[in-house]
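Structural prep section.
Before we set up the soaks we want a predicted structure of the protein with LLP in place, mainly to decide which crystallisation condition to try first. Input record follows.
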Amino acid sequence: MFTQNHITNFSSIETPFYAYDIKLLRNTLKALINAASKDYHIHYALKANSNPLLLSEIKNAGLGADCVSGNEIKRAIENGFDAESVVFAGVGKSDKEIEYALSQNIFCFNVESIHELKVINELAIKNNKIAQVALRINPNVDAYTHKYITTGLEENKFGINPYEFEAVIDVIKILSHVKLIGLHFHIGSQIQDLTPYKNLCLRVNEINKWFLQKGFKLNHINLGGGLGINYKEPDTQAIVDFEAYFAIFKNFLEIRPSQEIHFELGRCIVAQCGSLISKVLYIKEGINTNFLILDAGMTELIRPALYQAYHKIENISKNNSEIEKIKYDVVGPICESSDCFGKAVYLPKTNRGDYIAIRSAGAYGEVMSSKYNLRDDVRSVVV
Ligand code: LLP
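Run finished without errors. Recording the tokens verbatim:
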């Protein structure tokens, strides 16, 4: 949480910028490691935030890396992650990315189609490598989350569907440079109710058995990520209940003693430690509402415009416990009506130059920023 006390630190930094609370990140990592104990291997999903300031903390906590592009693999390795801890997912891996991943001897490719398997095999032959692969399975489990971040349904582009299993194993058997080591699942993101994870376990149990019956002893089961955070109340539950999350897998997943369980978590590790800090440029009094025009826009944080996502907004120049609040539409400077961070937000009476914190922005914030309208690259600081 950033308060009036931080404003002196902020005054030398040009807004808008991301401020990361490193102590909260450390505490979150501690809680995660304790809850996962030795039973589970956690790969941090770099797509949530690949800022080196955070990566060093995450790497030092002992997490592996989950990457979705050649550049993410490069970023992970440059920031000290072992290549043997890297898993590489994505429906559209390019030849260049596959060859780079092969050259780094990454731990595992999460393969999303039969066609991709064949291409990885060809490139592995060309580069004289053996590629370890896990099949990304589409389990057809509903994550009950925003439709843009649901990934485990038949209608989604991700993963291999059960009706393709026989064909996949026929292909695997004849590929010389691909070694099938496991199964991979990911049903979606920002999942707060844990029931979909129970349903995922039940599907994984069936699929795991099916592969064993076919003679495949797969020692690597990767259950993806997706654990959601509390955007409404970022301070009351700053660290998610990792114990409850892992308990679902302990209770419902039936695995063989040789099988290792892996996860790819992103948002729940980094979201709450980041706030987008912005200053009020103008206040425009409308008929039904007052507009608070910030110097940050959808170019710095696109989640509200793209997913109608809620982020708590605070005026940190003012005492937020002040009783009298005014209703504002909090908007950015970009030439799009969707450039709005929140409608009918109640804040203390706000002035030009006040600092506004947009909370829970550590995940899918800075990484999704753009240069639309020829904006500056967004800055970041660690507090
Ligand atoms: N593994 C795979 C295969 C994924 O596709 C994702 C996220 C993760 C792991 C990490 O999921 P997490 O633990 O962070 O939920 N931009 C959207 C979220 C997109 C998520 C994409 N995949 C947002 O701002 O909500």
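Observations: The chain has two domains: 4-16+272-382, 22-271.
Flagged for discussion at group meeting.
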